Structure formats: C-alpha cells, structure tokens
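Worked example 2:
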Amino acid sequence: MQRTATIESSIGRIGVTAKGRGIVEIRLRARKKIPVPRSRDRGAGHLRRACGQLREYFAGKRKRFSLPLDLSSGTLFQRRVWRACARIPHGETRSYAELAELVGCPHGARAVGQVMGSNPVPIVVPCHRVIRSDGSLGGFGSGLPVKRKLLRIEGVL
C-alpha cells in the first residue's frame, strides 16, 4: 500500500510517499497538505521516520539520513548514480564530472546531470550537493533558489 504525507519546511511544503519497501518519492513544493498517517503498516512507519528526519534536517539537527529507500523505478545506471550521490557528505559538494568518475563513467557528466534531474528522493539523495566543475551551481529540478537554500542550510554557501 502506498502512503503519502507532507511536512512544512523552510523551502515550502514537502510531500513524502512510501510503500512497504521504503520511501519512493520526496516531492519539493507539494501542493496538498496531507497529515502523517497513524496506521501501523510499514509504509506509514516509513513515512513517520522520513518526516521526522526531514524536520530534523531543516532544524539543523540531522546531517545523515537513515531511511529505507525504494529506488526500484530507476534504471541500473540511475540507481548507481543515486547511491554514489547519497554518499556525498553533508556540507560538501561534488561536481557532475566527479560523480560520473565515481560510477565508472568518466565522460558521463551530462548523463549524471540528467540522472540528478530525475532523482525521486531529493534531500535524502542530496542532488543539491552536485555542482558544475567550475564551481557554479548547475541546475536543480525545484529551481536554483531552493538549491541555494539547501546548500545554505548545510553551510556550503
């Protein structure tokens, strides 16, 4: 069973969706307000943990997430890139080219950029920490102002 809930944050409302295996989506700028379910099924439990950890992140109390993620909707390459991105430490950045090198695709910076654009769980898989080789921010699916805010929260900007 799929469950969804939202939280309020300094970047706006965030929607979180979970299934029994884990978190499948984090949607920045969610529209509808949906309370965290009180049900005892696994999806609801994953949601409560995710919402709690995201609140801690925005309060400056969490630097690493420990959530089960269900990234099965991605291709093998996408999942490899998302796993590498998830290992970028809080407060640090990597370039698209560095990430491409890490996943064994040294000339794949553009491909990595496209994968970052399709990241289903931003913040937890911190695609906001991936920047251009020249130090500029590059792109971000929810817009550069949101990317800047997330990097400020982490002390990067």
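Residues 3-58 form one domain. Strands lie at 3-9, 12-19, 22-28, 94-95, 130-131.
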